[in-house]
Design brief:
mainly alpha; 5 helices
């Protein structure tokens, strides 16, 4: 069950990016001028890329910064969350909170 959740957590936002790009390519073209930024977002920060495409065409104002901050926090948790969970796996070291 844990492996299934991890698989969907990793593939889910990237699959959404591909699907959304296939359905609304004009929105993606209006948001990004080049292919490099959405590709880097696809690889390293998929939640931030999704949030940016969601809020950008109308302009980033008001609570849009909150959505972007939440997306950045989701991406950061996927980058750094494993270190805390695996802190006791090093041989000969035990850490307590």
């Amino acid at each position: 069950m844990c492996c299934l959740f991890t698989m969907f957590a990793l593939i889910g936002p990237r699959g959404l990016i591909v699907l959304w790009w296939l359905v609304q390519p004009v929105r993606w073209s209006a948001t990004f001028d080049t292919f490099i930024l959405p590709f880097l977002g696809f690889v390293f920060a998929p939640w931030t890329t999704i949030a940016y495409v969601l809020v950008f065409p109308d302009g980033i104002t008001g609570l849009d910064f909150l959505w972007l901050a939440l997306a950045i926090a989701l991406d950061a948790s996927s980058w750094f969350g494993g270190a805390y969970g695996n802190r006791n796996r090093l041989s000969g070291r035990t850490y307590t909170a």
